[in-house]
Amino acid sequence: MTRTAFFISDGTGITAETLGRSLLAQFENLEIRMVTKPYIDNIDKAQSLAEVIQATAIRDGEQPIIIDTIVDENVRKIISSAPGFKVDIFSTFLAPLEDELATHSTYTVGRTHSIGRDDVYMNRIDSVHFALDNDDGARTHQYDKADIILIGVSRCGKTPTSLYLALQFGIRAANYPLTEDDQDEDGTLKLPRALMPHRHKLFGLTIDVRRLAAIRSERRPNSRYCSMDQCMQEIQQAEALYRQMHIPYIDTTRFSVEEISTRMIAEAGLNRRF
Amino acid sequence: MTRTAFFISDGTGITAETLGRSLLAQFENLEIRMVTKPYIDNIDKAQSLAEVIQATAIRDGEQPIIIDTIVDENVRKIISSAPGFKVDIFSTFLAPLEDELATHSTYTVGRTHSIGRDDVYMNRIDSVHFALDNDDGARTHQYDKADIILIGVSRCGKTPTSLYLALQFGIRAANYPLTEDDQDEDGTLKLPRALMPHRHKLFGLTIDVRRLAAIRSERRPNSRYCSMDQCMQEIQQAEALYRQMHIPYIDTTRFSVEEISTRMIAEAGLNRRF
Protein backbone atom coordinates (compact mmCIF):
# COMPACT_ATOMS: atom_id res chain seq x y z
CA MET A 1 0.00 0.00 0.00
CA THR A 2 1.51 3.28 -1.14
CA ARG A 3 0.63 6.55 0.49
CA THR A 4 0.85 9.91 -1.22
CA ALA A 5 2.42 13.14 -0.02
CA PHE A 6 1.61 16.48 -1.63
CA PHE A 7 4.04 19.39 -1.39
CA ILE A 8 1.93 22.45 -2.15
CA SER A 9 2.83 26.10 -2.57
CA ASP A 10 1.64 29.29 -4.21
CA GLY A 11 5.30 29.90 -5.09
CA THR A 12 7.98 27.61 -6.50
CA GLY A 13 7.26 24.77 -4.08
CA ILE A 14 10.96 24.44 -3.32
CA THR A 15 10.64 25.02 0.42
CA ALA A 16 7.69 22.64 0.87
CA GLU A 17 9.38 19.96 -1.23
CA THR A 18 12.77 20.29 0.43
CA LEU A 19 11.31 20.07 3.91
CA GLY A 20 8.85 17.36 2.92
CA ARG A 21 11.52 15.12 1.43
CA SER A 22 13.73 15.58 4.49
CA LEU A 23 10.93 14.66 6.87
CA LEU A 24 9.69 11.68 4.87
CA ALA A 25 13.26 10.40 4.36
CA GLN A 26 13.18 9.63 8.08
CA PHE A 27 10.58 6.94 7.31
CA GLU A 28 12.62 4.84 4.96
CA ASN A 29 10.57 1.68 5.40
CA LEU A 30 7.50 3.30 3.95
CA GLU A 31 6.94 3.74 0.27
CA ILE A 32 5.55 7.21 -0.23
CA ARG A 33 4.62 8.70 -3.57
CA MET A 34 5.69 12.35 -3.59
CA VAL A 35 3.97 14.98 -5.72
CA THR A 36 4.97 18.67 -5.87
CA LYS A 37 2.30 21.19 -6.80
CA PRO A 38 3.77 24.67 -7.22
CA TYR A 39 2.00 27.92 -8.21
CA ILE A 40 -1.36 27.02 -6.69
CA ASP A 41 -2.11 30.73 -6.63
CA ASN A 42 -5.81 31.08 -7.38
CA ILE A 43 -9.16 29.61 -6.38
CA ASP A 44 -9.56 27.56 -9.57
CA LYS A 45 -6.22 25.83 -9.23
CA ALA A 46 -6.90 25.24 -5.53
CA GLN A 47 -10.27 23.64 -6.26
CA SER A 48 -8.87 21.33 -8.95
CA LEU A 49 -6.08 20.30 -6.61
CA ALA A 50 -8.52 19.68 -3.76
CA GLU A 51 -10.38 17.30 -6.07
CA VAL A 52 -7.15 15.50 -6.95
CA ILE A 53 -6.36 15.13 -3.24
CA GLN A 54 -9.85 13.78 -2.59
CA ALA A 55 -9.50 11.23 -5.40
CA THR A 56 -6.04 10.23 -4.16
CA ALA A 57 -7.37 9.62 -0.66
CA ILE A 58 -10.00 7.27 -2.07
CA ARG A 59 -7.54 5.45 -4.34
CA ASP A 60 -4.89 5.06 -1.60
CA GLY A 61 -7.43 4.16 1.08
CA GLU A 62 -5.63 6.61 3.37
CA GLN A 63 -5.51 10.37 3.64
CA PRO A 64 -2.50 11.95 1.94
CA ILE A 65 0.19 13.87 3.79
CA ILE A 66 -0.05 17.56 2.87
CA ILE A 67 2.98 19.76 3.42
CA ASP A 68 2.45 23.34 2.31
CA THR A 69 3.76 26.88 2.28
CA ILE A 70 0.60 28.51 0.95
CA VAL A 71 0.32 32.16 1.91
CA ASP A 72 -2.97 33.15 0.25
CA GLU A 73 -5.75 32.68 2.76
CA ASN A 74 -8.45 31.69 0.26
CA VAL A 75 -6.26 29.07 -1.37
CA ARG A 76 -5.25 27.79 2.04
CA LYS A 77 -8.91 27.37 3.07
CA ILE A 78 -9.77 25.31 0.02
CA ILE A 79 -6.76 23.02 0.43
CA SER A 80 -7.45 22.54 4.12
CA SER A 81 -10.98 21.36 3.27
CA ALA A 82 -9.49 18.39 1.37
CA PRO A 83 -8.81 15.20 3.32
CA GLY A 84 -5.21 15.03 4.49
CA PHE A 85 -2.76 15.08 7.34
CA LYS A 86 -1.53 18.68 7.24
CA VAL A 87 1.96 19.89 8.04
CA ASP A 88 1.51 23.64 7.88
CA ILE A 89 4.99 25.14 7.83
CA PHE A 90 4.19 28.83 7.98
CA SER A 91 1.47 28.82 10.60
CA THR A 92 3.54 26.49 12.80
CA PHE A 93 6.65 28.62 12.83
CA LEU A 94 5.66 32.17 11.92
CA ALA A 95 3.59 32.96 15.02
CA PRO A 96 6.42 32.14 17.48
CA LEU A 97 8.91 33.96 15.24
CA GLU A 98 6.65 37.04 15.19
CA ASP A 99 6.69 37.05 18.99
CA GLU A 100 10.44 36.63 19.16
CA LEU A 101 11.14 39.29 16.52
CA ALA A 102 8.44 41.55 17.96
CA THR A 103 7.04 42.35 14.53
CA HIS A 104 4.44 41.10 12.08
CA SER A 105 5.44 39.02 9.10
CA THR A 106 4.55 40.16 5.62
CA TYR A 107 3.47 36.81 4.20
CA THR A 108 4.72 37.67 0.75
CA VAL A 109 3.83 35.00 -1.77
CA GLY A 110 6.69 32.57 -2.09
CA ARG A 111 9.20 35.34 -1.55
CA THR A 112 12.57 34.54 -0.05
CA HIS A 113 15.60 36.69 0.57
CA SER A 114 17.61 34.86 -2.02
CA ILE A 115 15.19 35.14 -4.89
CA GLY A 116 15.15 37.81 -7.56
CA ARG A 117 18.01 39.81 -6.06
CA ASP A 118 20.15 41.58 -8.61
CA ASP A 119 23.47 40.62 -7.02
CA VAL A 120 22.45 36.97 -6.94
CA TYR A 121 21.39 37.13 -10.57
CA MET A 122 24.63 38.68 -11.78
CA ASN A 123 26.81 36.42 -9.67
CA ARG A 124 24.98 33.40 -10.98
CA ILE A 125 25.37 34.37 -14.62
CA ASP A 126 29.05 35.19 -14.11
CA SER A 127 29.76 31.98 -12.22
CA VAL A 128 27.93 29.76 -14.71
CA HIS A 129 29.83 31.28 -17.61
CA PHE A 130 33.07 30.97 -15.66
CA ALA A 131 32.38 27.26 -15.13
CA LEU A 132 31.54 26.76 -18.82
CA ASP A 133 34.54 28.70 -20.10
CA ASN A 134 36.83 26.79 -17.76
CA ASP A 135 35.27 23.35 -18.18
CA ASP A 136 37.43 20.31 -18.82
CA GLY A 137 40.72 22.21 -18.97
CA ALA A 138 39.50 24.30 -21.94
CA ARG A 139 41.45 27.29 -20.63
CA THR A 140 43.90 27.72 -17.83
CA HIS A 141 44.73 31.43 -17.95
CA GLN A 142 41.79 32.43 -15.73
CA TYR A 143 42.76 30.18 -12.83
CA ASP A 144 43.83 33.18 -10.77
CA LYS A 145 40.11 34.15 -10.74
CA ALA A 146 38.90 30.67 -9.79
CA ASP A 147 37.69 30.00 -6.25
CA ILE A 148 38.39 26.29 -6.68
CA ILE A 149 39.74 23.99 -9.39
CA LEU A 150 38.27 20.49 -9.51
CA ILE A 151 40.47 17.71 -10.85
CA GLY A 152 39.77 14.07 -11.61
CA VAL A 153 39.55 11.46 -14.34
CA SER A 154 37.08 11.75 -17.21
CA ARG A 155 33.41 11.36 -16.11
CA CYS A 156 33.96 11.36 -12.36
CA GLY A 157 31.51 14.25 -11.86
CA LYS A 158 33.59 17.40 -12.32
CA THR A 159 31.25 19.26 -14.66
CA PRO A 160 27.96 18.81 -12.77
CA THR A 161 29.70 19.74 -9.52
CA SER A 162 31.26 22.89 -11.04
CA LEU A 163 27.88 23.97 -12.38
CA TYR A 164 26.07 23.27 -9.12
CA LEU A 165 28.65 25.33 -7.20
CA ALA A 166 28.08 28.17 -9.67
CA LEU A 167 24.28 28.09 -9.73
CA GLN A 168 23.64 27.45 -6.08
CA PHE A 169 26.39 29.40 -4.38
CA GLY A 170 27.96 31.74 -6.96
CA ILE A 171 31.30 29.98 -6.60
CA ARG A 172 33.69 30.19 -9.58
CA ALA A 173 34.78 26.61 -10.16
CA ALA A 174 37.11 25.54 -12.96
CA ASN A 175 37.78 21.90 -13.73
CA TYR A 176 40.68 20.06 -15.28
CA PRO A 177 40.83 16.41 -16.42
CA LEU A 178 43.56 14.02 -15.30
CA THR A 179 44.59 11.96 -18.33
CA GLU A 180 47.33 9.68 -19.57
CA ASP A 181 48.96 12.70 -21.22
CA ASP A 182 50.27 13.63 -17.80
CA GLN A 183 51.86 10.28 -17.03
CA ASP A 184 55.59 9.81 -16.63
CA GLU A 185 57.56 7.26 -18.68
CA ASP A 186 57.01 4.77 -15.84
CA GLY A 187 53.25 5.38 -15.93
CA THR A 188 53.06 7.58 -12.83
CA LEU A 189 50.60 10.45 -13.03
CA LYS A 190 52.20 13.87 -12.49
CA LEU A 191 50.47 17.10 -11.56
CA PRO A 192 49.81 18.86 -14.89
CA ARG A 193 52.03 21.88 -15.34
CA ALA A 194 49.12 24.32 -15.72
CA LEU A 195 47.89 23.40 -12.23
CA MET A 196 51.17 23.84 -10.39
CA PRO A 197 50.84 27.55 -9.56
CA HIS A 198 47.33 26.88 -8.20
CA ARG A 199 47.96 23.89 -5.96
CA HIS A 200 46.17 25.48 -3.00
CA LYS A 201 42.95 25.75 -5.05
CA LEU A 202 42.86 22.11 -6.16
CA PHE A 203 40.19 19.70 -4.99
CA GLY A 204 40.19 16.11 -6.22
CA LEU A 205 37.27 13.90 -7.15
CA THR A 206 37.39 10.13 -7.16
CA ILE A 207 34.79 7.49 -7.89
CA ASP A 208 34.14 3.78 -7.55
CA VAL A 209 35.67 1.79 -10.44
CA ARG A 210 32.44 -0.01 -11.34
CA ARG A 211 30.39 3.19 -11.31
CA LEU A 212 32.93 4.88 -13.56
CA ALA A 213 32.98 1.96 -16.00
CA ALA A 214 29.16 2.05 -16.16
CA ILE A 215 29.06 5.80 -16.83
CA ARG A 216 31.77 5.61 -19.45
CA SER A 217 30.23 2.67 -21.24
CA GLU A 218 27.03 4.68 -21.77
CA ARG A 219 29.18 7.11 -23.69
CA ARG A 220 31.54 4.75 -25.54
CA PRO A 221 30.41 1.12 -25.20
CA ASN A 222 33.01 -1.65 -25.47
CA SER A 223 35.94 0.77 -25.61
CA ARG A 224 39.24 0.66 -23.76
CA TYR A 225 38.04 3.95 -22.23
CA CYS A 226 35.26 2.15 -20.34
CA SER A 227 37.07 -1.08 -19.49
CA MET A 228 37.45 -2.01 -15.81
CA ASP A 229 41.23 -2.23 -16.20
CA GLN A 230 41.54 1.23 -17.66
CA CYS A 231 39.16 2.78 -15.11
CA MET A 232 40.97 1.13 -12.20
CA GLN A 233 44.38 2.21 -13.43
CA GLU A 234 43.28 5.82 -13.89
CA ILE A 235 41.59 6.02 -10.51
CA GLN A 236 44.54 4.50 -8.65
CA GLN A 237 46.89 6.98 -10.29
CA ALA A 238 44.63 9.92 -9.48
CA GLU A 239 44.26 8.94 -5.83
CA ALA A 240 48.01 8.38 -5.50
CA LEU A 241 48.57 11.89 -6.86
CA TYR A 242 46.08 13.41 -4.40
CA ARG A 243 47.78 11.72 -1.47
CA GLN A 244 51.30 12.53 -2.61
CA MET A 245 50.50 16.22 -3.18
CA HIS A 246 48.21 16.53 -0.14
CA ILE A 247 45.26 17.52 -2.30
CA PRO A 248 41.93 17.14 -0.48
CA TYR A 249 39.56 14.82 -2.32
CA ILE A 250 36.12 13.34 -2.13
CA ASP A 251 34.58 10.11 -3.39
CA THR A 252 31.57 11.05 -5.51
CA THR A 253 30.13 7.55 -5.58
CA ARG A 254 28.09 7.70 -2.40
CA PHE A 255 27.16 11.37 -2.54
CA SER A 256 24.75 13.57 -4.41
CA VAL A 257 25.94 16.70 -6.19
CA GLU A 258 24.43 18.70 -3.30
CA GLU A 259 26.52 16.78 -0.78
CA ILE A 260 29.72 16.91 -2.83
CA SER A 261 29.37 20.66 -3.29
CA THR A 262 28.52 21.52 0.31
CA ARG A 263 31.30 19.27 1.63
CA MET A 264 33.82 20.98 -0.64
CA ILE A 265 32.70 24.38 0.57
CA ALA A 266 33.08 23.26 4.17
CA GLU A 267 36.44 21.52 3.70
CA ALA A 268 38.05 24.11 1.46
CA GLY A 269 36.58 26.99 3.45
CA LEU A 270 35.12 28.62 0.34
CA ASN A 271 33.09 31.81 0.56
CA ARG A 272 29.64 31.53 -0.93
CA ARG A 273 28.48 34.63 -2.83
CA PHE A 274 24.86 34.02 -1.79
CA MET B 1 20.76 46.63 14.84
CA THR B 2 21.25 43.42 12.87
CA ARG B 3 20.21 40.09 14.23
CA THR B 4 21.78 36.81 13.21
CA ALA B 5 20.12 33.56 12.12
CA PHE B 6 22.02 30.27 12.08
CA PHE B 7 20.90 27.41 9.85
CA ILE B 8 22.53 24.33 11.34
CA SER B 9 22.66 20.72 10.20
CA ASP B 10 24.72 17.57 10.51
CA GLY B 11 24.08 17.09 6.79
CA THR B 12 24.22 19.51 3.84
CA GLY B 13 22.21 22.21 5.61
CA ILE B 14 20.02 22.61 2.54
CA THR B 15 16.74 21.88 4.32
CA ALA B 16 17.46 24.16 7.28
CA GLU B 17 18.64 26.96 5.01
CA THR B 18 15.75 26.65 2.55
CA LEU B 19 13.15 26.69 5.30
CA GLY B 20 14.98 29.38 7.26
CA ARG B 21 15.21 31.75 4.30
CA SER B 22 11.53 31.24 3.50
CA LEU B 23 10.45 31.99 7.05
CA LEU B 24 12.70 35.01 7.50
CA ALA B 25 11.69 36.40 4.09
CA GLN B 26 8.31 37.03 5.67
CA PHE B 27 9.98 39.66 7.87
CA GLU B 28 11.26 41.89 5.14
CA ASN B 29 11.58 44.99 7.30
CA LEU B 30 14.20 43.36 9.47
CA GLU B 31 17.78 43.05 8.45
CA ILE B 32 18.90 39.57 9.41
CA ARG B 33 22.37 38.20 8.85
CA MET B 34 22.05 34.56 7.74
CA VAL B 35 24.76 31.98 8.33
CA THR B 36 24.58 28.34 7.21
CA LYS B 37 26.59 25.78 9.20
CA PRO B 38 26.48 22.35 7.53
CA TYR B 39 28.19 19.11 8.62
CA ILE B 40 28.14 19.88 12.34
CA ASP B 41 28.49 16.17 12.92
CA ASN B 42 30.66 15.75 15.99
CA ILE B 43 31.06 17.09 19.50
CA ASP B 44 34.07 19.24 18.66
CA LYS B 45 32.38 21.05 15.82
CA ALA B 46 29.26 21.48 17.94
CA GLN B 47 31.23 23.01 20.79
CA SER B 48 33.06 25.46 18.53
CA LEU B 49 29.78 26.48 16.96
CA ALA B 50 28.13 26.92 20.37
CA GLU B 51 30.94 29.35 21.23
CA VAL B 52 30.39 31.25 17.99
CA ILE B 53 26.67 31.50 18.77
CA GLN B 54 27.45 32.73 22.28
CA ALA B 55 29.81 35.41 20.93
CA THR B 56 27.24 36.43 18.31
CA ALA B 57 24.57 36.87 20.97
CA ILE B 58 26.86 39.20 22.89
CA ARG B 59 27.87 41.17 19.80
CA ASP B 60 24.30 41.53 18.49
CA GLY B 61 22.85 42.25 21.93
CA GLU B 62 20.09 39.75 21.11
CA GLN B 63 19.89 36.01 20.97
CA PRO B 64 20.28 34.55 17.46
CA ILE B 65 17.56 32.62 15.66
CA ILE B 66 18.60 28.97 15.37
CA ILE B 67 16.94 26.81 12.72
CA ASP B 68 18.27 23.29 12.64
CA THR B 69 17.87 19.78 11.27
CA ILE B 70 20.41 18.11 13.57
CA VAL B 71 19.74 14.43 14.07
CA ASP B 72 22.61 13.43 16.37
CA GLU B 73 21.43 13.74 19.95
CA ASN B 74 24.77 14.75 21.45
CA VAL B 75 25.30 17.48 18.88
CA ARG B 76 21.75 18.67 19.40
CA LYS B 77 22.26 18.94 23.17
CA ILE B 78 25.34 21.13 22.81
CA ILE B 79 23.69 23.47 20.32
CA SER B 80 20.58 23.77 22.45
CA SER B 81 22.74 24.90 25.38
CA ALA B 82 23.80 27.97 23.37
CA PRO B 83 21.65 31.11 23.67
CA GLY B 84 19.14 31.29 20.85
CA PHE B 85 15.53 31.20 19.73
CA LYS B 86 15.23 27.64 18.43
CA VAL B 87 13.13 26.47 15.52
CA ASP B 88 13.56 22.72 15.70
CA ILE B 89 12.25 21.32 12.45
CA PHE B 90 12.53 17.61 13.09
CA SER B 91 11.25 17.44 16.64
CA THR B 92 8.33 19.73 15.73
CA PHE B 93 7.09 17.68 12.81
CA LEU B 94 8.41 14.14 13.20
CA ALA B 95 6.43 13.18 16.29
CA PRO B 96 3.02 13.98 14.74
CA LEU B 97 4.11 12.31 11.50
CA GLU B 98 5.14 9.20 13.41
CA ASP B 99 1.65 9.03 14.90
CA GLU B 100 -0.03 9.53 11.55
CA LEU B 101 2.17 7.01 9.76
CA ALA B 102 2.00 4.61 12.73
CA THR B 103 5.73 3.91 12.58
CA HIS B 104 8.97 5.18 14.02
CA SER B 105 11.25 7.42 12.01
CA THR B 106 14.84 6.40 11.38
CA TYR B 107 16.49 9.76 11.93
CA THR B 108 19.18 9.04 9.39
CA VAL B 109 21.77 11.79 9.26
CA GLY B 110 20.85 14.29 6.58
CA ARG B 111 19.36 11.57 4.42
CA THR B 112 16.64 12.44 1.97
CA HIS B 113 14.90 10.34 -0.63
CA SER B 114 16.44 12.31 -3.47
CA ILE B 115 20.05 12.08 -2.44
CA GLY B 116 22.60 9.54 -3.60
CA ARG B 117 20.15 7.56 -5.70
CA ASP B 118 21.68 5.98 -8.78
CA ASP B 119 18.87 6.96 -11.14
CA VAL B 120 19.09 10.56 -10.00
CA TYR B 121 22.84 10.54 -10.49
CA MET B 122 22.71 9.14 -14.02
CA ASN B 123 19.82 11.36 -15.06
CA ARG B 124 21.66 14.39 -13.78
CA ILE B 125 24.85 13.58 -15.63
CA ASP B 126 22.93 12.87 -18.83
CA SER B 127 20.82 16.00 -18.57
CA VAL B 128 23.77 18.28 -17.79
CA HIS B 129 25.71 16.95 -20.76
CA PHE B 130 22.62 17.28 -22.93
CA ALA B 131 22.30 20.94 -21.91
CA LEU B 132 25.99 21.58 -22.60
CA ASP B 133 26.01 19.79 -25.95
CA ASN B 134 22.90 21.67 -27.02
CA ASP B 135 23.80 25.06 -25.59
CA ASP B 136 23.42 28.22 -27.69
CA GLY B 137 22.30 26.40 -30.83
CA ALA B 138 25.54 24.43 -31.02
CA ARG B 139 23.67 21.44 -32.41
CA THR B 140 20.14 20.95 -33.55
CA HIS B 141 20.04 17.29 -34.55
CA GLN B 142 19.21 16.11 -31.01
CA TYR B 143 16.09 18.25 -30.63
CA ASP B 144 13.89 15.17 -30.91
CA LYS B 145 15.38 14.09 -27.55
CA ALA B 146 14.89 17.49 -25.90
CA ASP B 147 12.12 17.96 -23.33
CA ILE B 148 12.13 21.70 -23.97
CA ILE B 149 13.99 24.17 -26.19
CA LEU B 150 14.58 27.62 -24.74
CA ILE B 151 14.83 30.52 -27.15
CA GLY B 152 15.70 34.19 -26.65
CA VAL B 153 18.20 36.92 -27.40
CA SER B 154 21.83 36.66 -26.31
CA ARG B 155 22.30 36.90 -22.49
CA CYS B 156 18.66 36.73 -21.48
CA GLY B 157 19.27 33.76 -19.19
CA LYS B 158 18.94 30.69 -21.45
CA THR B 159 22.08 28.86 -20.32
CA PRO B 160 21.67 29.13 -16.52
CA THR B 161 18.02 28.09 -16.86
CA SER B 162 18.88 25.08 -19.05
CA LEU B 163 21.49 23.95 -16.54
CA TYR B 164 19.22 24.45 -13.55
CA LEU B 165 16.49 22.38 -15.23
CA ALA B 166 19.08 19.64 -15.82
CA LEU B 167 20.65 19.60 -12.36
CA GLN B 168 17.55 20.06 -10.27
CA PHE B 169 14.95 18.11 -12.22
CA GLY B 170 16.75 15.95 -14.80
CA ILE B 171 15.02 17.79 -17.63
CA ARG B 172 16.79 17.80 -21.01
CA ALA B 173 16.76 21.43 -22.09
CA ALA B 174 18.37 22.70 -25.29
CA ASN B 175 18.68 26.39 -26.03
CA TYR B 176 18.89 28.40 -29.23
CA PRO B 177 19.74 32.08 -29.66
CA LEU B 178 17.55 34.52 -31.58
CA THR B 179 19.86 36.75 -33.64
CA GLU B 180 19.80 39.16 -36.53
CA ASP B 181 20.75 36.28 -38.83
CA ASP B 182 17.12 35.24 -38.69
CA GLN B 183 15.67 38.58 -39.67
CA ASP B 184 13.78 39.17 -42.90
CA GLU B 185 14.79 41.87 -45.39
CA ASP B 186 12.34 44.21 -43.65
CA GLY B 187 13.95 43.48 -40.26
CA THR B 188 11.24 41.13 -38.96
CA LEU B 189 12.51 38.20 -36.93
CA LYS B 190 11.48 34.81 -38.34
CA LEU B 191 11.43 31.50 -36.56
CA PRO B 192 14.79 29.87 -37.35
CA ARG B 193 14.40 26.94 -39.72
CA ALA B 194 15.98 24.42 -37.32
CA LEU B 195 13.28 25.14 -34.76
CA MET B 196 10.28 24.71 -37.04
CA PRO B 197 9.76 20.96 -36.58
CA HIS B 198 9.92 21.46 -32.79
CA ARG B 199 7.54 24.36 -32.31
CA HIS B 200 5.60 22.57 -29.59
CA LYS B 201 8.77 22.31 -27.48
CA LEU B 202 9.72 25.99 -27.66
CA PHE B 203 9.66 28.27 -24.63
CA GLY B 204 10.68 31.91 -24.97
CA LEU B 205 12.62 34.07 -22.55
CA THR B 206 12.49 37.82 -22.49
CA ILE B 207 14.11 40.42 -20.27
CA ASP B 208 13.95 44.09 -19.36
CA VAL B 209 15.92 46.26 -21.82
CA ARG B 210 18.00 47.99 -19.14
CA ARG B 211 18.87 44.73 -17.40
CA LEU B 212 19.97 43.22 -20.72
CA ALA B 213 22.09 46.26 -21.60
CA ALA B 214 23.77 46.07 -18.17
CA ILE B 215 24.53 42.35 -18.53
CA ARG B 216 25.83 42.76 -22.06
CA SER B 217 28.02 45.72 -21.21
CA GLU B 218 29.85 43.64 -18.60
CA ARG B 219 30.79 41.35 -21.44
CA ARG B 220 31.48 43.87 -24.24
CA PRO B 221 31.53 47.43 -22.89
CA ASN B 222 30.64 50.30 -25.25
CA SER B 223 29.66 47.99 -28.10
CA ARG B 224 26.63 48.11 -30.35
CA TYR B 225 25.80 44.71 -28.79
CA CYS B 226 25.16 46.35 -25.41
CA SER B 227 23.53 49.59 -26.59
CA MET B 228 20.00 50.35 -25.40
CA ASP B 229 18.82 50.71 -29.01
CA GLN B 230 20.14 47.34 -30.04
CA CYS B 231 18.80 45.59 -26.92
CA MET B 232 15.38 47.16 -27.33
CA GLN B 233 15.14 46.25 -30.99
CA GLU B 234 16.12 42.62 -30.35
CA ILE B 235 13.72 42.23 -27.46
CA GLN B 236 10.80 43.74 -29.34
CA GLN B 237 11.42 41.42 -32.27
CA ALA B 238 11.68 38.38 -30.03
CA GLU B 239 8.45 39.17 -28.16
CA ALA B 240 6.63 39.83 -31.44
CA LEU B 241 7.75 36.41 -32.67
CA TYR B 242 6.54 34.69 -29.47
CA ARG B 243 3.12 36.30 -29.77
CA GLN B 244 2.78 35.64 -33.48
CA MET B 245 3.74 31.96 -33.16
CA HIS B 246 1.87 31.44 -29.86
CA ILE B 247 5.09 30.45 -28.10
CA PRO B 248 4.74 30.67 -24.30
CA TYR B 249 7.31 32.99 -22.75
CA ILE B 250 8.48 34.36 -19.46
CA ASP B 251 10.16 37.59 -18.40
CA THR B 252 13.34 36.64 -16.55
CA THR B 253 13.88 40.10 -15.08
CA ARG B 254 11.81 39.74 -11.97
CA PHE B 255 12.41 36.07 -11.37
CA SER B 256 15.15 33.87 -10.01
CA VAL B 257 16.39 30.86 -11.95
CA GLU B 258 14.40 28.69 -9.51
CA GLU B 259 11.21 30.56 -10.32
CA ILE B 260 11.80 30.63 -14.07
CA SER B 261 12.46 26.88 -14.12
CA THR B 262 9.56 25.84 -11.93
CA ARG B 263 7.16 28.12 -13.84
CA MET B 264 8.29 26.57 -17.13
CA ILE B 265 7.72 23.09 -15.79
CA ALA B 266 4.23 24.06 -14.64
CA GLU B 267 3.25 25.93 -17.82
CA ALA B 268 4.73 23.48 -20.31
CA GLY B 269 3.59 20.46 -18.30
CA LEU B 270 7.08 18.95 -18.27
CA ASN B 271 7.79 15.70 -16.48
CA ARG B 272 10.55 15.94 -13.90
CA ARG B 273 12.85 12.91 -13.74
CA PHE B 274 13.32 13.35 -9.97
TrEMBL record, chains A, B:
Taxonomy, superkingdom: Bacteria
An annotated Gene Ontology molecular function: phosphotransferase activity, phosphate group as acceptor
Binding, ADP: 152-159
Catalytic reaction(s) noted: [pyruvate, water dikinase] + ADP = [pyruvate, water dikinase]-phosphate + AMP + H(+); [pyruvate, water dikinase]-phosphate + phosphate + H(+) = [pyruvate, water dikinase] + diphosphate
InterPro entries assigned to the protein according to its UniProt record, in alphabetical order: Kinase-pyrophosphorylase (IPR005177), PSRP (IPR026530)
KW Nucleotide-binding (keyword) present: yes
EC number, UniProt record: 2.7.11.33, 2.7.4.28
Family from the record: Belongs to the pyruvate, phosphate/water dikinase regulatory protein family. PSRP subfamily.
Function: Bifunctional serine/threonine kinase and phosphorylase involved in the regulation of the phosphoenolpyruvate synthase (PEPS) by catalyzing its phosphorylation/dephosphorylation.
Record's protein name: Putative phosphoenolpyruvate synthase regulatory protein
Source organism per UniProt: Litchfieldella anticariensis (strain DSM 16096 / CECT 5854 / CIP 108499 / LMG 22089 / FP35) (Halomonas anticariensis)
